[in-house]
Design a protein that fits this description.
Blueprint (H helix, E strand, L loop, with lengths): L2 E6 L4 H13 L2 E11 L4 E2 L6 H11 L3 E6 L5 H18 L5 E3 L6 H13 L3 E3 L7 H10 L3 E8 L14 H6 L13 E7 L9 E9 L3 E8 L4
């Protein structure tokens, strides 16, 4: 018997690694992806990834995509209400579902917050990568053939020029010593667009780059219609 689990999804490398780990374990049945999307921009909150790219990923992963929709900016209360509604919708769709998995690595306060949120709805959290060495995880991700691009950089922690770069062994070498190899402290966020977990590569092209709120550098990635 396998246990159904929902995968919290941002489109980035950590959730992709967590998804792979769950599928390899054999005792979990990942039934769908759950993403928080801003209504105003139709993008992943914080990461800035377009919904069209999320949908393309979900198609290549053979998983349905569910969204918790919030306004931007949003209060934490509004976010929690949207998240709770999404969990309720998922439980109704998949009877017996009461687990949600995350790609969190070592931030105990973030994990505690997620577990508290879930417990209110009678759910439990699953953390497949918890406390694993992030440098080793990053190397394994790249060596396995995954391809990702940095789509958001917190310029208070990492230079804006890293935004838009491919997540490669060279990038890991170029990161300052203060920056986590997986960006676990919010230094950067990624989009996975190719690799062994996807049935096919996402045909992407690079759009504009811009700085928002005087702090976050974004590089827009778009599906290439000609791809």
């Amino acid at each position: 018997m396998t246990t159904p689990v929902l995968m919290a999804w941002s489109g980035g490398k950590d959730c992709m690694m967590a998804l792979e780990r769950l599928r390899q374990a054999g005792d979990w049945n990942v039934v769908g992806l759950l993403t928080t999307v801003t209504k105003n921009f139709d993008r992943v909150a914080m990461h800035g990834i377009r919904r069209t790219l999320l949908e393309a990923q979900a198609t290549q992963l053979d998983l349905p995509l569910m969204t918790a929709q919030i306004e931007w900016p949003s209060s934490n209360d509004a976010y929690e209400q949207a998240h709770a509604q999404a969990l309720g919708d998922a439980a109704a769709r998949w009877p017996g579902l009461c687990h949600c998995a995350y790609g969190d690595l070592y931030l105990a306060d973030v994990r505690a917050y997620r577990e508290k949120q879930l417990s209110r709805a009678g759910w439990k959290g699953v953390f497949p990568l918890w406390q694993e060495d992030t440098a080793a995880l990053a190397r394994r991700f790249i060596d396995a053939g995954h391809r990702a691009t940095l789509v958001c950089v917190d310029t208070t922690q990492l230079d804006a020029t890293f935004c838009g770069r491919a997540y490669t062994a060279q990038l890991l070498e170029d990161l300052p010593g203060s920056v986590d190899a997986c960006g676990e402290n919010g230094e950067f966020h990624t989009l996975v667009h190719a690799g062994p977990a996807l049935h096919g590569d996402l045909p992407i092209r690079r759009g504009e780059s811009l700085l928002r709120d005087g702090r976050f550098q974004y590089t827009d990635l778009l599906l290439d219609d000609a791809g």
